[in-house]
Design a protein that fits this description.
Rossmann fold, six-stranded mixed beta sheet, globular, FMN_Rdtase-like_dom
């Protein structure tokens, strides 16, 4: 796949840097898998930035979402990653989804939603069930604002319930997670390349 494709991974861990993060680890693994298909990527930790509450592109004041928004617009593939807390996506992930809501009113020169022709991958980690539920929420929200979802584009790891072992504590990546990561990256790179070459029609 062409090296012109780019990816942005937004990690919605609750842990500020430099704390270790299972969510970041999964994001880095997905970016590495995308790199095998010529996709260059960057991972950002949302909690390290001031993302004000709201559904506007710029909430003013010390809001740093506009800078992250520029990265979102520039990337062909968005990898949205979240830990699982109480069976739900993190509050940080919900904040990111709410800020993306502003993109519903943005159109390109052809009159199409600004995020058309872009592709999304979901990454979820946690010591409890909820990965399928969270993936459904992420994908529906991202699709609403224009993202396309490739086949089998969610990557998740659920540890044993009510235990203390995190994804980052594992000695090696579980085979099924590695397979899911490879599949998601391959399909996302393929779809993103097709859409970049010949995107959806205008209104």
């Amino acid at each position: 796949m062409t090296a012109q494709l780019t990816a942005l991974a937004i990690s919605c861990t609750l842990k500020p840097s430099p704390a270790e993060s299972s969510t970041d680890l999964l994001g880095s693994q997905i970016l590495s898998a995308l790199a095998e298909h010529g996709v260059t990527g960057e991972l950002v930790r949302a909690v390290d930035h001031v993302i004000s509450p709201g559904v506007e592109a710029d909430m003013g004041g010390d809001d740093q979402w506009p800078t992250l928004r520029e990265k979102v617009h520039a990337a062909d593939i968005l990898v949205l990653l979240t830990p699982t807390w109480m069976g739900q996506q993190s509050s940080v992930a919900q904040r990111v989804l709410e800020r993306l809501d502003a993109e519903l009113s943005e159109t390109d020169d052809a009159g199409r939603p600004i995020l058309f022709d872009k592709v999304a991958i979901a990454g979820i980690v946690g010591n409890e069930d909820g990965a399928h539920h969270i993936a459904a929420i992420l994908f529906q929200s991202l699709n609403d604002v224009g993202y396309s979802v490739p086949a089998q584009a969610s990557v998740y790891w659920n540890g044993e319930a009510m235990q203390t072992v995190d994804y980052k504590d594992l000695h090696e990546t579980p085979e099924k997670v590695a397979q899911a990561t490879a599949t998601a990256a391959r399909n996302a790179a393929r779809l993103a390349g097709l859409l970049k070459a010949d995107g959806y029609p205008a209104d």
